[in-house]
Amino acid sequence: MTNKTPTSFQRRWAGRLVAVAAGLLVSASAWAAAGGDVEHAGTDLSDQASLQRGAQLYMNYCSACHSLKYLRYSRIAEDLDLSEEEVMNNLNFTGAKFGEQVQVSLTADHAEDWFGKMPPDLSLISRVRGSDWIYTYLKSFYLDENQPLGWNNKLFPNVSMPNPLWELQGLQHAVYGEADEAAGGERPVVGLEVKTAGQLDAENFDQAARDITAFLEYAGEPAALKRQSMGVWVILFLVLFTFFAWLLKSEYWRDVKH
């Protein structure tokens, strides 16, 4: 008679599967609570021009508050094919040395007064949230007079920061739906509309958001650039190695067959 009692190994793996499923459910719930669907970013780490534009946009509009403490200016220059002069003149606004990390000039006291806390470092934000989330987040700010800083975000409600790209995007307003009694009578945000134009039209602003997203994706894993460039050579090596292995096998088995 076959023993149907689960072994300790089976129980252990069953427990792991349950934990993974629970984690996925929690993540899905958190994602839905954060604002629902996200847009596809369409970033391309092989597009060096996009990364260069993203670096410039990030340093001009984001780096005053958000550091990249795991990324050095020298590494940016090396990976994005920029000279030391270009990086120090156009991307470094804190007076840091070429070999130092990307830090902020914002002090903890000022951050506490303005935002209630120090803005987070964004070195690994793409690995935590994903590129699609970042891209959608950058496009989802809208004016909200009920918020302390006058801004809110459809993807991340009650965010404690203003829209850093409002000059480029323009002034975006929320489009509200019908009041939801189950949510305390609040009117949900069903859409966003730019009512006062910014420096860029919608298409060019989308590209700017995509460029910043690509740069943050690169910042989360700078080695990805070299890994992708080496991937072709690795595949070619494996193909060549497989060919020689097949020749060697044929040579060994020729004597065996005869």
TrEMBL record:
Q: Which Pfam families match?
A: Cytochrom_C1 (PF02167)
Instruction: Provide the transmembrane region boundaries.
Output: 230-248
For this UniProt record, give its keywords in alphabetical order, as a comma-separated list: Heme, Iron, Membrane, Metal-binding, Signal, Transmembrane, Transmembrane helix
| Annotated localization | Membrane
Residues making up the signal peptide according to the UniProt record: 1-32
Q: What is its main location?
A: membrane
Kindly provide the name given to this protein in its UniProt entry: Cytochrome c1
